[in-house]
Give the backbone structure.
Amino acid sequence: METAQEVLIAGGMLMLVLGLVTGNIMAMIRMKEPTVPRYLSLAHEGCYLQGAMLLGLAVAAGLSDLSSGWENAAAWMLVVGAVLLFTKDFLNWRLGVEDEFASKGIGLTLGFLMGPLHTIGVIILTVGVFGAL
């Protein structure tokens, strides 16, 4: 197994664990309140989506014909981007943010960092996969 695949699998599993943790937090809140905060819900759902994406991209990394340097860079960009997405939503929840775009706080800054990492990482792996086909 290549290093990029290991990074993506470890990152995917981390995101799934964070999804479970946030799910348990949501259950505790729901025992007392009729709804859960929006950004906690986004953090929870995002973890599962990002986890599945990273695990799927581990397969893509194995199909890629790029050098290991490019694949590793893409893998790290994607994992760091996923962690930033979780951190953004988790911090927005903990800080009581209602709208990250209106508040222009740390969540928005982390989102602006996450976006390019994900975009570039996916583009790199896409080029590698299509080059191998």
Observations:
- Residues 3-127 form one domain.
- The two ends are 20 Å apart (CA to CA).
